[in-house]
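anyone seen this seq b4? input:
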Amino acid sequence: GYLVNLFLTSKDYKSALEAIDNIKVLTPELKQAYQKVAYYRGVDLFNSLEYDKAIKLFDKSMSYNFDKNIRAMATYWKAEANYRNKQYDRAIDNYLAYVAEPGAISKSEFSDANYNIGYAYFKMSDYKNSVLWFRKYITFKSQADKKKINDAYNRIGDGYFMNREFSSAVDYYDQSYKMHMINADYALFQKALANGVMKKYEEKIADLKAFIAAYSTTSSTYVQRAKFELASTYFLNNQPDPALAGFKKFVEEYPNSVYVNTALSKIGLIYYNKKDDDNALAYFDKLIKRDRKS
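predicted toks r here
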């Protein structure tokens, strides 16, 4: 036992583990030490990204139940290791086991487990369960990290969007956007798209205008698409004049965009509907020339 204690105090968990493994019959004290040593060594391996080896040690630690706290944490980190290994179904089982552990509820990881279960389901495209667990996470707001709350709102929005529950998606994207943290541009853009799918064109136009005002001078990756969506939404909403202006400006600003062909055909169509055949033909001609080049 002396050697084991020496390794424990020096935090040399690898040597402590080897020392215990060399003892044939373990006393209760050594079993208790083994539960700790295997856990701490597992954490070391986890931090070195050696997830498979870490899982084996967490399992060894969990085979003893002297310290409820260590047992709960071994269960949690085993879940994390499985998640990093993209073994999402196993990770969910481990997180659920962790949540049920007596030592878990008072810990900050308890709230994180709900968040991580939400993500594991999300990665498996099980959006219904994903929404359920992310919503559970945001009900413990007081314990939760603000950035994660912000992210959870977006993932709930995504889950509802993927399951075609667009009005719920709008609500959660809006809550995310109003926090004005990371990915606020994503939240507002997705909110606009969800409104569009519901044919709420006035709302979509308002969202896109707000988006362009807030982000057109930033590095947001959605700016180009937002400008194209705005012109397209005016077109769908029977507002040909702002649609025409929007598409023309778009073609000038982004001549190499993948949306240019669509924009040119819409400009041609608007002119055609206005009985302005000369301009209609000119734009259809531009479109044909572009197609030949590509």
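The first helix runs from residue 2 to 9. The chain has a mean pLDDT of 93. kinda curious what u guys think
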